[in-house]
What we know:
Strand content: over 45%
Number of strands: 36
Helix content: under 10%
CATH topology: Maltoporin, Chain A
CATH class: Mainly Beta
Amino acid sequence: MxxxxxxxxxxxxxxxxxxxxxxxxxxGQAQTPPDATTSASTSLPARTLDTVVITGNPxxxxxxxxxxxxxxxxxxxxxxxxxxGDTLTGLPGVSSTYxxxxxxxxxxRGLDGDRVRILSNAGASMDASSLSxxxxxxLDPLIVDRIEVLRGPGALFYGGSAVGGVVNTLDNRIPxxxxxxxxxxAEVRLGGAARERGGAALIETGNDRxxxxxxxxxxxxxxxxxxxxxxxxxxxxxxxxxxxxxxxxETHGGAxxxxxxxxxxxxxxxxRVGLSVDTYRSDYGITAEPDVMIQxxxxxxxxxxxxxxxxxxxxxLRLNANxxxxxxxxxxxxxxxxxxxxxxxxxxxxxxxxAPLGPLRGVLGVQHEDFNFSALGDEAFVPKTNTxxxxxxxxxxxxxxxxxxxxxxxxxxxxxxxxxxxxxxLPKFGDQVRRNFSLQSYxxxxxxxxxxxxxxxxxxxxxxxxxxxxxxxxxxxxxxxxAYEQGNxxxxxxxxxxxxxxxxxxxxxxxxxVGAFYTRFSRxxxxxxxxxxxxxxxxxxxxxxxxxxxxxxFNAVRARLYGVEIEGRKRLADLPWxxxxxSQFDMTRGANRSxxxxxxxxxxxxxxxxxxxxxxxxxxRIEADHAARQNRVPxxxxxxxxxxxxxxxxxxxxxxxxADAMWYVKxxxxxxxxxxxxxxxxxxxxxxxxxxxxxxxGMRVTF
Length: 703
């Protein structure tokens, strides 16, 4: 099958034409909070979100103890990749699964899959990306205004599937604030290692009572260009190449949304209610299989509302709900559809902020999720399932002599059902099974100002996570891992405790943050090799038998993760150029305490040094990103070599009549160094190195 796709390009054509006629705004641009990580040096004047962190911070506190990285404005524009994982990898403690350039899910502090919660405007993504590494997250960074990454447990607010962290993408598809008149924007991007042709555009209008939003985006990429290498497929060398096979993609989508605003003035109550409808389509190749592509579509309806009260017991009520219909089919080279994955469901979230009770400020909330999943076809290795979760949570915060103290708790009920075998004559998954789990999570955190410039923060949390439908009921060959995966319907809840400490220093121009974390799981659900080989039916066979694959089972083991994260910025000079030096270091270590082996796919220690320069409308950056050799791997994996990537960027701001614009050029992997990601599964790592030397140009315009 050809790796070049030929789908309708109307969305891309529209976005590119609007790019030259209009430009792109920073809908959610916000000032960088103390914990933020961003490359932005200046920003266009635009409508802003609140300057505080939104994710995991329902009380809107100016400082929170949890470590959070924020990308917005120019920093986000210059970091945007073709996927969410590609955009975020390299942030402190963050890497990606990197199953080729199209399927990249964020990995936070060595934890991936269902332990990292992917959110869109705080609503569940409800896709199949946590099931398999070759399944993409249906969120395109082109249309996102702001991304917040909560490193460490977010289970208190978002449930057990956030025990490792939270990635929340924010946009303005449901406008949060009234608008004045008409505005629009667009962005166009060309080049890069995958020869990207991409763009996004939007228009908005409104007044003090209503606001409307419309956007469209599109992206085409070719097979990824890399330094010349010898691909390895199941340990067998293939012909040398400078392209990653079957890695091209076409993606497009768009949204319509609006909000109504009420109250204000003499009215003691004011608020908003809004609705959006959006769609996402992507056709992309699977690097592990040269003649297979995925055709993905996701449709979503979102609802958001907020009511603010001037007096009474309740000061703010927020209700959000989303319905998602996700489906992707894996198409063989012959055109036949091999396997169809689908997920359909909804999530609902209600938060109620109460009036101060003495020194206490607090919020109570309820969250409910319900989704059905099915996989039909030759490569289906999980049965049809239904998952329901309902959680109650509370957070109370108070100022005291030791700083700002917050205490929280969450109680959750989860039910995971398997429908078993669809055809009793073809036994594979067994009878219908229902598992119920009662989950509890607690948190204690404090931020202590030591001086006007120094602060000390710390948090302690205990979390529980229910096993997922695939950890419980999987039974079959998983093509992405080249293994037979067998679930365990008797798995208990995953249980862990986490300690996070950080010391921070900040002035108007300089800042330093030194943090450390320690996570201990008394029960950690791990996919471990059994030492046996089986055929496609699951029957045990001798290793080396044709079509045999290793058998892996999900088990509850003891595990430990710990690490450090250091970020710093120092003003070096002011005139004639403003020069800032930046540095970043992170290290994560993980171990399976039941076997004594390292946990798999942990990124090695990394060091990044950068120099930012700004003068008038010009900004420039040079950075060196070094990753050490990763020798700490289990027996089922192989070490990865160290590498150093050098990147350059240059941008300029210009104004034309009523429009503001920024053009930029980026040169990545200047030395064209061949590099491999340690957080990629071993079966795909030898087929897909990291991108080679490339130049990308782009322009963003706002009016």
